[in-house]
């Protein structure tokens, strides 16, 4: 049985990564030409890893389920990327970025990984600028920065509201250079359906060509999984529709432990659901909370009047509104971290104060910001006694300059003008902090099998601060994995090509084929989406932002029952050997139906509230923090890594105790 | 609302396709166009028919995956949006809507509304990159200041999502807006300058080899572009091309 050895290098935190790099095994450039690496997923992590490994001289085979690496969901990230450059001279340092990340993650991440992340963060910016990423500049031509929630310095680099897009296109361009050189062989519209192990080591994958439906065998000396998060287990999320857990789940079933599955970030500022047909949720940048005030009506009769269209939100006076974040958290107000803001919105809506037809929305109001900016502008323009309209117009101009693209996006979706009437927002599932367990080398519990980016668990703990996901994806791909994988591959220089006509490949291909055949031949009653939506509802109702033992136990039973029904009654149209999106979805939902149960099991085990995960039984009962989430460091300062044993309910828990030598564990307070 | 849909169905790249009529009922004006397509597909699955294959993913207008020709326009009648951002409130009860794949020789149909846009990939591989080692030994990012104006213009060009609406809208199936945007991004940045000659020559040569037509300054591409990529980028590419040719 695999044991959990995190392989954290000895020595002081500050020196670990440098010492490690100085002492690991290297592969001679001539030998790199004889070594193949498979990279599955080509977003920020997979794309940057593919490009760098090819640059180093390895033969890379990269797989994307889309028609191009440029479509990976990293492209949708808006706000920015953190880096401890201290260009602003406001006291930033590696240590501060490290500290903010560990604290923001509610002390559930691995110190050594996070410190390394902070260290390489500055390199990422240099690298991306050299690749032609058009980051925002100030009038002196230097890079501009902005601030994000949860930190006290300006360390976020950005490219308008499309930072993820530009960083991904940077990695994609680096990939294109290597594809042109023949060092990356690119497999677009291919999906990895299983991993192949030979003598306990990952040596290849079975992939399906999504255009022809053919199954293909691909071998390599090491396999890297970079397929992102599993937020779509909720059906509705901010993830792309195709984002799936299949690769990560399949390697879990082949021996890779799955860590902290219940750690899922619920983002507070999404556009609310409008009906049952809805296919996904849209995130509005967190930066809106810098100027928006969040409220619901104080009186239930006003809530009803608004829902029934008898009153408009603008009809309510200041004292008829409950600015609940400002009321509960006077120190941070509307700028509390994502988990706190999300829970508070849910609390108000659960109490019946939601302002839209579904009762799942709160207002994000820019009226006072428009007025404040308007008065300031009037002064600057020497307008004495400005009219209300003048103030509004001037203020609107400022808000438009800051958030215009977001306001426009909102108006397109909701068909309401957010300058005139407050936006409606509600929390939605966004980023998954849990994922495949990896050691300091980013290797899973299977030899030669690596996992990077959002697909692994290591850097964000129980919560993710803004602008830190892009940082981890690129850090892993550009600067960490290319070193650590060499240490492993140094032993493989004499192995030679891995053949694919072996019994190991035969067996796994047969498993994959049998599963696909089953779907096509099942001729059941219900569509794949029918099951996915049902799973999503169980997850949101019982394994969502607030959880309790009773609900979680029920959820486990309900998911198991749903899964059994799925395998009896699912209907998949079309044939095997053709492009068949329904067949693709069926396999992915089958995996979500297992992952969802493990997710609930993990949440049930974790009898504490931490990050965005509010365990109702673990609440502060008195004092200043009364009613807030209560973390339990004594019993739960560990990573929960689950070993697959057949049914998700039978998974075996392994604990990696977390050590915090350089940081004192403190209660997070935003009062 | 209740709608009649006339949709292009084509089994695979080798089969002949045809328009097929479908009816959908109770469509909410709040749905996105793709959610309306989901409703249709759920209906088809329930009656044992094969759902309509179409490309989509992020459904927030940034991945560039969704591509449909709706009532004779790429991404449909609304301006500045992708198909996933198009809402049913743009249509009326009783409407007949024509839905076809993006049409261009360089975008062969794979199935139904799904087309193959890998010609774009090959153009990018012909030079849409800066030849810098990804080792992290690059100089400090602030070592070369870039004027805000240039950085902003490079960003505007770089905002292209590679959806192909420009090609589908062009009577010549030209890819010059797409290629011009990428050439411009690098032409505007000091880091991209050294390879400018090879880049523009190679990318244009690949564009021609893929079977894209030429630009005759009609401007349909700019009007239909969901990201407002400007025709100026084509002019800049032409200038870069001329400079490189002499």
From TrEMBL, chain A:
Pfam families linked: FAD_binding_2 (PF00890), Succ_DH_flav_C (PF02910)
Cofactor: FAD
Ranges for domain Fumarate reductase/succinate dehydrogenase flavoprotein-like C-terminal: 532-670
Family membership: Belongs to the FAD-dependent oxidoreductase 2 family. FRD/SDH subfamily.
Residue ranges occupied by any FAD-dependent oxidoreductase 2 FAD-binding domain in the UniProt entry: 36-470
EC numbers, comma separated: 1.3.5.1
Catalytic activity annotation: a quinone + succinate = fumarate + a quinol
Assigned GO CC terms: plasma membrane
Domain of life: Bacteria
Gene Ontology MF annotations: electron transfer activity; flavin adenine dinucleotide binding; succinate dehydrogenase (quinone) activity
Principal location: membrane
UniProt KW keywords: Cell membrane, Electron transport, FAD, Flavoprotein, Membrane, Oxidoreductase, Transport
InterPro entries: FAD-dep_OxRdtase_2_FAD-bd (IPR003953), FAD/NAD-bd_sf (IPR036188), Fum_R/Succ_DH_flav-like_C_sf (IPR037099), Fum_Rdtase/Succ_DH_flav-like_C (IPR015939), SdhA/FrdA/AprA (IPR030664), Succ_DH/Fum_Rdt_flav_su (IPR011280), Succ_DH/fumarate_Rdtase_cat_sf (IPR027477)
Membrane topology qualifier: Peripheral membrane protein
Active site per database record: 338
Compartments where found: Cell membrane
GO biological process: anaerobic respiration
Enzyme class, spelled out: oxidoreductase
Name of the protein this chain belongs to: succinate dehydrogenase
TrEMBL record, chain B:
Superkingdom of the organism of origin: Bacteria
Cofactor: [2Fe-2S] cluster; [4Fe-4S] cluster; [3Fe-4S] cluster
Keywords: 2Fe-2S, 4Fe-4S, Iron, Iron-sulfur, Metal-binding, Oxidoreductase
InterPro entries, alphabetized: 2Fe-2S_ferredoxin-like_sf, 2Fe2S_fd_BS, 4Fe4S_Fe-S-bd, Beta-grasp_dom_sf, Helical_ferredxn, SDH/FRD_Iron-Sulfur, Succ_DH/fum_Rdtase_Fe-S, Succ_DH/fum_Rdtase_N
GO molecular function, one term: 4 iron, 4 sulfur cluster binding
Gene3D superfamilies: 3.10.20.30, Alpha-helical ferredoxin
Gene Ontology terms: biological process: respiratory electron transport chain; tricarboxylic acid cycle
Xref: PROSITE patterns: 2FE2S_FER_1, 4FE4S_FER_2
Residue span, 4Fe-4S ferredoxin-type domain: 151-181
Assigned protein family: Belongs to the succinate dehydrogenase/fumarate reductase iron-sulfur protein family.
Protein name in UniProt: Succinate dehydrogenase
Name of the coding gene: sdhB
């Amino acid at each position: 049985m695999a044991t959990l050895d995190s392989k954290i290098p000895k020595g002081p935190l500050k020196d670990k990564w440098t010492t490690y790099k100085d002492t690991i095994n290297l592969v001679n450039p001539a030998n790199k030409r004889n070594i193949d690496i498979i990279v599955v997923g080509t977003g920020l992590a997979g794309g940057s890893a593919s490009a760098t490994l090819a640059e180093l001289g390895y033969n890379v085979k990269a797989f994307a389920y889309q028609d191009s690496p440029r479509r990976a969901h990293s492209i949708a990230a808006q706000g920015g990327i953190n880096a401890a450059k201290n260009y602003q001279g406001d006291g930033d340092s590696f240590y501060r970025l490290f500290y903010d990340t560990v604290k923001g993650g509610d002390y559930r991440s691995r110190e050594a990984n996070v410190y390394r992340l902070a260290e390489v963060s500055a390199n990422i910016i240099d690298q991306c600028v050299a690749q032609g990423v058009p980051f925002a500049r100030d009038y002196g031509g230097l890079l501009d920065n902005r601030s994000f929630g949860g930190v006290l310095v300006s360390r976020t680099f950005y490219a308008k509201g499309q930072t993820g897009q530009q960083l991904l296109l940077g990695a994609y361009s680096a990939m294109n250079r290597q594809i042109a050189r023949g060092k990356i062989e690119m497999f677009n519209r291919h999906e990895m359906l299983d991993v192949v192990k030979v003598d306990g080591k990952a040596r290849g994958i079975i992939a399906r060509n999504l255009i022809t439906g053919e199954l293909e065998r691909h071998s390599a000396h090491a396999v890297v999984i970079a397929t992102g998060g599993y937020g779509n287990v909720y059906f509705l999320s901010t993830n792309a529709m195709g984002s799936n857990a299949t690769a990560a789940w399949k390697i879990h079933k082949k021996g890779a432990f799955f860590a902290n599955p219940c750690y899922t970030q619920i983002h507070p500022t999404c556009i609310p659901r409008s009906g049952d047909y809805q296919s996904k949720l849209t995130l509005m940048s967190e930066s809106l909370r810098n100027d928006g005030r969040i409220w619901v009506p104080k009186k239930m009769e006003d809530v009803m009047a608004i829902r029934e269209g008898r009153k408009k939100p603008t009809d309510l006076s200041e004292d008829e509104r409950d600015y609940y974040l400002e009321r509960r958290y006077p120190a941070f107000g509307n700028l509390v971290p994502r988990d706190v803001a999300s829970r508070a919105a849910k609390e108000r809506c659960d109490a019946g104060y939601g302002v839209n037809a579904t009762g799942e929305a709160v207002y994000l109001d820019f009226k006072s910001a428009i007025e404040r900016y308007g008065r300031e502008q009037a002064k600057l323009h020497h307008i004495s006694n400005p009219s209300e309209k003048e103030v509004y117009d001037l203020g609107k101009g400022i808000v438009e300059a800051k958030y215009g693209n977001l306001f426009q996006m909102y108006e397109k979706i909701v068909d309401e003008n957010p300058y005139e009437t407050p936006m409606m927002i509600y929390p939605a599932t966004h980023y998954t902090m849990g994922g495949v367990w990896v050691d300091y080398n980013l290797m899973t519990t299977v030899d030669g099998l690596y996992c990077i980016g959002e697909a692994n668990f290591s850097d964000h703990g129980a919560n993710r601060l803004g602008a830190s996901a892009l940082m981890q994806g690129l850090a892993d791909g550009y600067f960490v994995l290319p070193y650590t994988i060499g240490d492993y591959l140094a032993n493989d220089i004499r192995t030679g090509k891995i053949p694919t006509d072996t019994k190991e490949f035969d067996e796994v291909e047969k498993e994959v084929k049998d599963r696909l055949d089953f779907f096509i031949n099942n001729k059941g009653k219900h569509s794949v989406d029918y099951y996915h939506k049902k799973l999503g509802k169980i997850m949101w109702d019982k394994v969502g932002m607030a959880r309790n033992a009773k609900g979680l136990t029920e959820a486990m039973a309900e998911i198991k029952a749903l899964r059994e029904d799925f395998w009896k009654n699912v209907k998949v149209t079309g044939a095997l050997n053709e492009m068949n999106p329904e067949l693709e979805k069926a396999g992915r939902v089958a995996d979500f139906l297992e992952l969802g149960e493990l997710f609930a099991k993990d949440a049930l085990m974790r009898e504490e509230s931490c990050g965005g995960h509010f365990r109702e039984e673990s609440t502060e009962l008195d004092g200043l923090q009364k009613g807030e989430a209560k973390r339990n460091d004594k019993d739960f300062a560990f990573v929960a890594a689950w070993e697959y044993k057949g049914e998700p309910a039978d998974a075996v828990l392994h604990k990696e105790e977390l050590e915090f030598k350089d940081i004192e564990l403190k209660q997070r307070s935003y009062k | 609302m209740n709608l009649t849909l006339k949709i292009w169905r084509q089994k695979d790249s080798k089969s002949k396709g045809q328009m097929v009529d479908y009816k959908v009922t109770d469509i909410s004006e709040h749905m996105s166009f793709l959610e309306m397509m989901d409703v249709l597909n759920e209906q088809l699955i329930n009656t044992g028919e094969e759902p309509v294959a179409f490309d989509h993913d992020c459904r927030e207008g940034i991945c560039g995956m969704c591509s449909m020709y709706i009532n004779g326009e790429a991404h449909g009648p609304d301006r500045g949006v992708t198909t996933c951002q198009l809402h049913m409130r743009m249509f009326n009860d009783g409407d007949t809507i024509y839905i076809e794949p993006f049409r261009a020789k360089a975008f062969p149909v794979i199935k139904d509304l799904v087309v193959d846009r890998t010609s774009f990939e090959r153009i990018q591989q012909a030079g849409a990159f800066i030849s810098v080692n990804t080792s992290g030994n690059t100089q400090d990012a602030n070592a070369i200041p870039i004027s805000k104006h240039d950085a902003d213009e490079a960003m505007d060009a770089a905002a292209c999502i590679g959806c192909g609406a420009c090609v589908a809208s062009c009577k010549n199936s030209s890819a010059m807006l797409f290629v011009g945007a990428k050439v411009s991004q690098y032409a505007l940045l000091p880091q991209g300058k050294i390879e400018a000659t090879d880049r523009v020559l190679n990318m244009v040569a690949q564009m021609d080899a893929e079977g894209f037509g030429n630009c005759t300054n009609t401007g349909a591409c700019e009007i239909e572009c969901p990201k407002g990529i400007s025709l100026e980028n084509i002019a800049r590419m032409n200038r870069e091309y001329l400079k490189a040719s002499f």
